Known about the structure:
The structure holds 2 protein chains of 2 kinds.
Chain A: H1 11-39, H2 46-78, H3 85-90, H4 100-106, H5 108-129, H6 134-150, E1 155-157, E2 160-162, H7 205-219, H8 221-232, H9 240-268, H10 279-304, H11 308-330, H12 348-368, H13 385-407, H14 409-416, H15 425-446, H16 456-480, H17 486-509, H18 518-538, E3 541-542, E4 564-567, E5 571-574, E6 577-587, E7 590-600, E8 606-612, E9 615-617, E10 625-627, E11 629-632, E12 636-645, E13 664-668, E14 673-675, E15 679-687, E16 702-712, E17 717-720, E18 723-727, E19 730-734, E20 736-738, E21 743-751, E22 756-763, E23 771-780, H19 782-810
Helix pairs in contact in A: 1-2, 1-6, 2-4, 2-5, 4-5, 5-6, 5-7, 6-8, 7-9, 8-9, 8-11, 9-10, 9-19, 10-11, 10-13, 11-12, 13-15, 15-17, 15-18, 16-17, 17-18, 18-19
Chain B: H1 3-25, E1 28-30, H2 32-37, E2 43-49, E3 56-57, E4 66-72, E5 77-82, E6 95-103, E7 106-115, H3 117-120
Parallel strand pairs in B: 1-2, 5-7
Antiparallel strand pairs in B: 2-4, 2-6, 3-4, 4-5, 6-7
Amino acid sequence: MNIQYIGERLFPGQLGNxxxxxxxxxxxxxxxxxxxxxxxxxxxxxxxRAWLNLARIGFRIHSLSVLGIIxxxxxxxxxxxxxxxxxxxHSNSTMRMRYILSCFWEGQEGSFLLWTFWHxxxxxxLIRSSKDWEASVMTTVAGVQVFLCSMLLGVYVMDYKIGxxxxxxxxxxxxxxxNIPLFQNPNYLDKLDGRGLxxxxxxYWMTIHPPTLFLGFALTLVPFxxxxxxxxxxxxxxxxxxxxxxxxxxxxxxxxxxxxxxAWAYExxxxxxxxxxxxxxxxxxxxxxxLVGAGHVMLIHKHKGQSLLLTFFLSLITFILVLYSTFLTxxxxxxxxxxxxxxxLGMSGQLLLYLFFFMGLAIVMLVVNRKQFPSSLEEExxxxxxxxxFMGSLVLLISSFHIMFNTSMPVWDKIFAxxxxxxxxxxxxxxQVPFAILLTFLIATGQxxxxxxxxxxxxxxxxxxxxxxxxxLAAGIALLIKMSEVIYIALLWSAxxxxxxxxxxxxxxxxxxxxxxxxxxxxxxxxxVILGALISTSKKEFISHSNADKDIASLxxxxxxNNILLQVGDTLQMGDYxxxxxxxxxxGPNVYFNVDYYTRQPDGxxxxxxxxxxxVQINAQMGNVAEPDTRHFxxxxxxxHITYADYETIDKQKQDQNDYGNPKNSTxxxxxxxSSSNSLIVLEGFNTTVDKKKYGLNDSVLxxxxxxxxxxxxKKNYSANPVFVVIHNxxxxxxxxxxxxxxxxxxxxxxxxTGKIDISVAEKSVNTPDFIVMEAISFPWINVLWTGCIxxxxxxxxxxxxxxxxxxxAS
Amino acid sequence: MKKIHIIGIIIIAVSIGAIxxxxxxxxxxxxxxEAGANQGSEFHVVGKLDKNKETVxxxxxDANLFTFYMVDNGGVEKKVVLYKSKPxxxxxxxxxxxxxxxxxxxxxxxxxxxxxxSKYNDGKPSETKKL
Lengths: 811, 131
């Protein structure tokens, strides 16, 4: 049966598909041409020049095609072309357009595109800037693009689907939706709306976090490509210089991207913190750690020519870890161990091929070229900067090994058929805290060492003051915030030492000048990040875990747990605050809850301190999503999150207080009791000889009356007698109301075997005031963490700037 | 022996230590039968909500107590006591992972992970009124 569908716009899909194929073919051509250009003996060889020109043209066509793909996909999203599965899957017509970017990269295809886009941008910069490294470096860059573009191909080769193409999959042809009656209608598009964007992603962080993170990932390709090129060209000692600034740009960007993810988790998700050691978070952190290591050993190499092997190892492993992370988060292997992995698109095989190809390339290149590494080096002095940086890089490497090993539990389970689960945050912390102590200590002292050898007495003399200050500060802070765990106090000190020593180095030794202060400033930032993470996490306090005065009315059970129930108008003490729930209101898709925080004044009166509006985004299709609200103070944050609320009444804002709410069912035998909000309801017995006239019933019908006694808290008794009626095999029930209590009873089933009956109890909404169940957490000094992030990025950018300026001056 | 060798040995030792510690402290996935036989040890149990049985959350009595019945992948059913508020969209969950210990016939969980099909790929194209 062929249906002539009306209104389908198939041209954009065809156009997009042409761009996809063009992007793939042109970059394959470009990569091979670069390879041939590099294999010619000399760059001035006319044949090499010809190949180089062809390769450049190929890469330009590829770049334009990628822009074409992106433009077409945006056009389709913007125009609500729901005939395409991708558009239907990730957007709808009521969605606000500012989230169109989130729609774009919500799916795997879009995020691969984002990654491809950044590689194309970086490739074009490399073509202009890498001079005689161009052919060798771009071979790898274009080669990576070949793999990435293949993820978008969506073609079948021998029944194996290669890639997933957002342009060729029409909704009505999607295998999941075969035989859906809607598609029998030629005019189905008129009646179709998109599924919409996951509410978790309808957040401004989600418009800036993914592009930053993917730019960071893309930047890790540059040191990898240079490393491979260095081996290929037998210039093992020369590639580090051009790769160095790229590496530090990567450190700054990837670091920012990861922290944006943390900020998103903290502001918009219910993680209850900025870092949860979630597998997806871990798999972006680990390449950052190795990239930081790579950047630092490149510095040693630059100044001393040492740590050659480690510059290769860390540069190559960083990109391989990015590929491994991609496999982890996109193959579906993480399954239930992560909240925000992508779903499986059946590309695991392709992802593994991508990973193993470049891993194999790196290993083969290293093994084949092993002679380029001098076997014996003069031993470096213990008191040299290079030795301390080297140690720091190794600590980073072990730390990332530990994180990766544990994040990979689902992979080990699969390989070795075991059933280990991914460990919890406490386990990660117990291992990573000692690593952080070592690292911050090395960072504190490293700068005071000179390259080659330094006089230890001079070093000690210079570092004495920051050392003493950090001990005093650590002792003071530990006492102030009542920190008792030895390991945390050790980290508190080492992080403070890191901040003080680097601050001292910048202010005293570099006289506070910004020139060449980048490293010190970045290290101050790193120390602050650790400090803020330590204090805000270890001293995080659930204030909703209330120890309020018992005499405050309607104090509810909390069992020492973290959720607390607040009825409208109730005031409960939480920490130093008195918290009131003022009611809720609806705006757009969101329901906001007014939660007011009061503080007690010296005169005993309560004064409104601040108002928070945590919200729940109502999404009937994808499920409701709660978003916390946080009040930021200089020295702490108060985080408030709705964990449960009465969603039924959300849409009935001005519900009549005299309407009955939804009834609750129970099964009772004679003598059993159920409770309502204001009384206990006891089933006392039955009456089978009902006065049928009273209810206007025929004599022939069967009727049973149940007798209930309702006892209130103040010992008043009421009775109610609902009736169960069977007329011509039809069951009816006649409700009994108790107007004084606002209760209605229905008797609607008899279970002959058990002798029990089913009843329902409905209460007027005036009986059951609106309530919320919430969590409130205080995060002390979390601003130190965020400030540290910014300081670290500023320091890194400053260092890159200085380095570029110097290299421009030098040439 | 060079310093580099000593460092190498330390790194290998720490790495091996990390692996052993990870494997020995990590709790494992199990079914209710195994968790029931090892009362007091922590397990991750994967299963499905029994939608025919009652789920009880009475925030007015205890905002941190939620009970439901779960059938594990081996088909064994247990009552689960979760010391948390009732998760949003609980009834829509397709798969549940609970983390906790068995106490008698009940499983006491302090953590829950849910897989909701709706969040990612549920929902079929259907007629909707366009706005």
